[in-house]
Specification:
Elements (H helix, E strand, L loop, with lengths): L1 E5 L7 H8 L11 H14 L5 E9 L2 E11 L7 E4 L12 E2 L4 H14 L7 E8 L4 H12 L2 E9 L2 E3 L4 H6 L3 H15 L5 E5 L6 H12 L3 H6 L2 H16 L3 E8 L2 E11 L2 E9 L8 H15 L4 E3 L6 H5 L6 E8 L3
Parallel strand pairs: 4-6, 12-13
Antiparallel strand pairs: 1-2, 2-3, 3-4, 3-5, 6-14, 7-14, 8-13, 9-10, 10-11, 11-12
Helix pairs in contact: 2-9, 3-4, 6-10, 7-9
């Protein structure tokens, strides 16, 4: 393999990058070229104040075999390391971009390249948010052992999801009886409310900017999210929504009550599944259970429109399991070169 180091985003390989991602060990929206470029523009909404881009691409002849989308930076109190672009807070799933068949050779070559490279942090790979099912995890351990690097692995967060049967009533029949009753009761109460209740997904490009602002304002009703939504983070969130809209995978959904926005979900509709990214709720409408009602409508829509999975992504909030989600986890793998 021939290796190329990029210290700026290489626009000339965007098409190859995304094509390779389609057959990679982890095809997730957070690894698309345009998403990671937007993430880097704000360093994850200000999560990282400094850093050096370290994108390593491997070719076999003219064929792009793999991409290690990395950057060099130091966590507080730690020495510099190489992290996956997108780390850590606002990109739920990350990985290397390489076909499974090419993974062992790609990793062997990557560690060999880093051992000889004069790159800050090249002596340690600190890779967060890999799904526990990713073939990259055992392959990293094997490559580290072969190269004499130290390997450690830890579980970071729950990441629950629902496998959808393709039929709303079948889905409801598969969850807890009490929860099934609650979903039906709350959705029926909203339908019968004296004030008009409707839900919709943003599709008008001319309305997008205003709808994004409305979503961020709904998020800000939560004190924790208010603190999270710094000016830089708001820019990052807007960049993410614009990027998803431009690529046809934004599902920004609102529930309105008497014309006022009561709840919203920011999702991605990508690869025949719904990826639930964030949400906002106006607590003035709590008596209508707007968050649950909107989530019920989205699950019904996903079943009726052939989506195979409803992925709640990171976080073990109780409501996810009440709607029938089961656990998987995201992991952190650390590889350290011997001194």
């Amino acid at each position: 393999m021939k290796w190329t180091l990029y210290t700026v985003f290489p626009d000339d390989i965007k098409a190859e990058w995304n094509a390779l991602l389609e057959n990679s060990v982890s095809h997730v929206p957070f690894l698309r070229y345009e998403y990671l470029r937007a993430w880097w523009a704000t360093r994850g909404g200000g999560e990282w104040t400094d850093g050096q881009l370290v994108i390593l691409a491997a070719r076999r002849g003219d064929e792009l075999v793999g991409v290690a989308p990395l950057f060099s930076a130091a966590r507080a109190g730690e020495t510099p390391a190489l992290h996956l672009l997108g780390s850590v807070e606002i990109s739920d799933y990350l990985d290397l971009i390489v076909r499974e068949a090419d993974l062992p050779g790609f990793l062997d070559g990557l560690l060999e390249y880093l051992a000889a490279a004069e790159i800050p942090g090249a002596a340690r790979l600190d890779l967060s948010n890999l799904l526990d099912s990713s073939p990259t995890l055992p392959a990293l351990q094997a490559a580290a052992q072969s190269a004499g690097w130290t390997y450690t692995q830890q579980r970071l967060e729950h990441s629950p999801y629902i496998t959808l049967p393709g039929d709303w009533e079948t889905y409801l029949a598969g969850i807890d009886k009490k929860q099934r009753h609650e979903i039906r009761r709350k959705m029926r109460r909203a339908e019968e409310a004296p004030l008009p209740v409707r839900w919709y997904v943003v599709s008008d490009a001319d309305a997008l900017e205003g709808e994004m602002d409305a979503f961020l304002e709904l998020m800000a009703y939560d004190p924790e999210k208010t603190a999270f939504l710094t000016p830089t983070m708001r820019d990052a969130m807007r960049n993410t929504m614009r990027c998803a809209f431009e690529n046809g995978c934004l599902q920004l959904a609102f529930l309105t009550i008497d014309g006022r926005k009561a709840a919203a979900y920011l999702n991605f509709d990508y690869l025949n599944r719904i990826w639930v990214y964030n949400s906002g709720l106006n607590r003035d409408f709590n008596e209508y259970s707007p968050g649950w009602v909107l989530l019920g409508h989205q699950l019904q829509w996903a079943n009726e429109n052939g989506r195979a999975e409803f992925d709640f992504m990171r976080g073990d909030e109780d409501y996810k399991y009440r709607f029938g989600a089961v656990d998987r986890f995201v992991m952190r793998a650390t590889l350290t070169r011997p001194t």
